[in-house]
Amino acid sequence: MNFDWRECLNRHVLLPLSEARNGCKTSRYTNEIMQLFGSSAAQIAEFQLGRLRKVCKYAFEYSEFYRRRIAEAEIFDLDKMSFEEFCRIPITTKQDIRESVSLMIAQGFTEQELRQTATGGTTNSPTTFYMDWETYDKRWASSNVQDQWMERKPGIRQVFLWGAPQDMIAPRTWKGRLRS
Questions:
Q1: Residue 1, pLDDT score
Q2: First to last CA, the chain
Q3: Of 86, 133, 147, 163, which sits most exposed with the smallest number of CB within 10 A?
Q4: How far is it, in rounded angstroms, from Cα 52 to Cα 127?
């Protein structure tokens, strides 16, 4: 196996510098996910339930839509919520998003703190929704973990064929636009 200096430079120097410059935390979240490898099923279930409780508590406090959904499911103590109780919360559908997206957005976010995105629209028309930049970084961390399972490592050259323009981040500077 040959040592690839370009891959090493990209992965260990340029990628961390780029993330630091842009305030991106994708690598940190990728490492958090990777720490779950080797955990038992019980440990993973405990981790998942803890995250579900945290997300539901946040949604209840800051989103009118989810406050109603959780109240309808008659969950009264989110700190002690069980998987069974969580399963009583109705699944959010595309129709729910189309009709209530403004009620879903957590209170306290400015427009600049949110990224508008959409589904690919393969089954119908695209459904628009919003995520904060932290969630966006976590989404990419999840993709990074999947890439590593397939032995695609950060820093190697890759080509992506993707037809969803909302998933492509436009370069912010004239130099970036020139490069793309």
A1: 58
A2: 32
A3: 163
A4: 24
Q: For residue range 16-72, what is the model confidence (pLDDT) as tens digits?
A: 888 888 888 888 888 888 888 889 999 999 999 999 999 999 999 999 999 999 999
166-175 contacts: CB < 8 A, separation 24 or more? 166/116, 166/117, 166/118, 166/126, 167/117
Single pTM value for the model? 0.72
pLDDT digits (tens, 9 = 90+) for 131-140: 998 888 898 8
Indicate the helix (H) or strand (E) that contains 36.
none
CA distance 26 to 46: 23
Higher pLDDT, 72 or 111: 72
Report helix, strand or coil for 117.
Answer: strand
Report which DSSP code applies to 13: I
Residue 170 CB-density burial (10 A; 0-12 exposed, 13-18 middle, 19+ buried): exposed
What is Dmax (Cα atoms) for the chain? Answer: 59
Q: What is the 3-state secondary structure (H, E, C) of 40-54?
A: CHHHHHHHHHHHHHH
Residue bearing tokens 């820093």:
155
CB-based contact 117:128 (threshold 8 Å): yes
Residue 132 exposed, middle or buried by CB count within 10 Å (0-12, 13-18, 19+): middle
